[in-house]
What we know:
The chain is mainly β. The chain has a single domain, classed as Lipocalin (Beta Barrel), CATH 2.40.128. It contains one helix and eight strands; from the N terminus they run αββββββββ. The chain has an eight-stranded antiparallel beta barrel. Pfam families: DUF2147. This is DUF2147 domain-containing protein. InterPro entries: DUF2147.
Amino acid sequence: MKKSITILALFISIVFYGQNHTVIGKWKTIDDQTGKAKSIVEIYERSGKIYGKIIDILDAEKKKNLCVNCPGDEKNKPVLGLVIIKGLTKDGNEYNSGKILDPTSGKLYKCFLALEGNDKLKVRGYVGVALFGRTQTWNRVK
């Protein structure tokens, strides 16, 4: 009986550890220049790739903004609901080989994500090599 309870407790702890040790979930974006929270992005997996969509904008005055500078099909679409992280794949402890869209400038950058603990996500957008870019730290929404 003690063995069964121990095995069950171990299984439950592994399941909970695995759920929090992934980029999938809701994240509060923090502007690296102002330090202010801007939005909530939901990161999800589809067909083995990672995507992220803006599900809330924290500044009430910007909730109805359009992506006027965005390229292609995203031009003039609402920022709320916009998929900004596109096609990342897991590579060891990082997710890379995809793109991130800056809805303010409309520019598309190469991107990588890396967890820092369970509740912090390092998001780097860059041009060419990762040396030339910006990094934001996002916080998991509980």
